[in-house]
UniProtKB/TrEMBL annotation:
Signal peptide: none
Matching PROSITE patterns: HD, HD_GYP
SMART domains associated with the record: HDc (SM00471)
Name of the protein described by the UniProt record: Uncharacterized protein
Start and end residues of each HD-GYP domain: 116-312
Domain called HD: residue spans: 138-261
A Pfam entry, by short name: HD_5
NCBIfam families with a match to the protein in the record: HDIG
Xref: PANTHER family: CYCLIC DI-GMP PHOSPHODIESTERASE PA4108, CYCLIC DI-GMP PHOSPHODIESTERASE PA4108-RELATED
InterPro entries: HD/PDEase_dom, HD_domain, HD_GYP_dom, HDIG_dom
CDD domains, alphabetized: HDc
Length: 353
């Protein structure tokens, strides 16, 4: 978790990109600017015109050497626990492929003892992005979607049981791919239309496998069946529209898309979380708008404070990211310069460890 402090600055020392730590009001009692506002050159000039001599600025507290060491140790533990969990998922998927039956008891235990604890990790989505990807994409992706889906369910303040169902659905959303031929799943290069149709059957296959299980919520089955449906009816397998897509499926769909585009795959290199946010914003006609906005607003908060590589080669830290559509972050370079990426026509290339 980021730590902040409030510090008073003389107005002449205030720089564009700084964030107000408290409301500023005029003698008349009228509010001029509210806490959390990001200052621009125009706003600073406005404060000077109002004869404001000092302002309180909210700053990110730089971690100490000891805190950095603790953070690195936590990342190491996260990576170890993540790797262990992926191997268990692989065993469950391999068993399902061999027996055509999901070992649901093992999967439930995994969800409770391994997956749910991840949701309490600080810097969770950042740690997920920094995980090294390998040939275990299907199993890593299943874990990621369970974690991201469970996190989004918590952001939506869903009831406990619904969060549990979404975590389980995340683990199972691609289980039907064990029935798709390996030569198609592992193919390097573009799939033929026939091969694509075979892959698209995986949500139906997964639903059929889950229907055989006792004591699994119908919401889990529906989420697996519908996770590729889209609000405008362009998805599959049923071409359902928004009103006919259940909420757990909408949550899994967003988690699925976000993780897919921020992970390296056989046929596609990953993009940064910052590019992924822009992609999801453009997909809001296809993804549920309300659920997607909740995800985007929260994930922007998650990546404030991150060190990033800019398109001009400089390193910087994200200090603000507005919540309106297509907003680009404001960053601070190592030299202390605050930059609006939109104004400077720059972009974030990657997140730095």
């Amino acid at each position: 978790m980021l730590q902040y402090r409030e510090k008073q600055y003389r107005i002449e020392d205030v720089l564009p990109g700084m964030t107000l730590g408290e409301d500023i009001g005029h003698n008349s009692g009228k509010s001029i600017l509210n806490q959390g506002a990001v200052l621009t050159e125009k706003l600073i000039q406005r404060l000077e015109n109002w004869h404001i001599a000092h302002v309180v600025i909210r700053e990110v507290v730089e971690p100490t050497k000891e805190n950095r060491s603790q953070a690195l140790e936590k990342q190491k533990d996260f990576k170890h626990n993540y790797g262990e969990t992926v191997q268990i998922i692989k065993q469950i998927f391999d068993s399902t492929k061999a027996c055509k039956d999901i070992p649901i008891k093992d999967l439930r235990e995994l969800a409770q003892t391994k997956v749910k604890p991840f949701l309490n990790e600080s810097g969770l989505l950042n740690n997920l992005y920094l995980i090294e990807r390998n040939d275990n994409y299907l199993y890593q992706h299943s874990l990621d979607v369970a974690i991201i889906g469970g996190t989004l369910a918590n952001w939506l303040a869903l009831p406990y049981q619904e969060v549990e169902d979404i975590i389980l659905a995340g683990l199972l959303h691609d289980i039907g791919k064990v029935l798709v031929p390996d030569e198609i799943l592992d193919k390097r290069g573009r799939l033929t239309p026939e091969e694509m149709e075979a892959v698209m059957l995986h949500s139906l296959y997964g639903s059929k496998l889950i229907k055989k299980l006792k004591y699994v919520s119908a919401k889990v089955n529906i989420a697996v069946l519908q996770h590729h449906e889209r609000a405008d009816g362009s998805g599959y397998p049923l071409k359902a529209t928004c009103a006919n897509i259940y909420l757990p499926a909408k949550v899994i769909a967003i988690a699925d898309v976000y993780d897919a585009i921020t992970s390296n795959r056989i046929y596609q290199e990953r993009v940064s979380p910052f590019e992924a946010v822009a992609t999801l914003e453009d997909m809001m006609g296809k993804l549920d708008i309300s659920v997607c906005m909740t995800f985007l607003n929260n994930i922007k908060e998650c990546f404030i404070g991150n060190n990033v590589l800019l398109s001009d080669g400089r390193n910087a830290k994200v200090i603000y990211w507005a919540k309106f559509k297509h907003a680009l972050p404001i960053v601070q370079t190592q030299e202390g310069e605050c930059i609006s990426l939109e104004q400077e026509k720059l972009s974030i290339v990657d997140v730095i460890h």
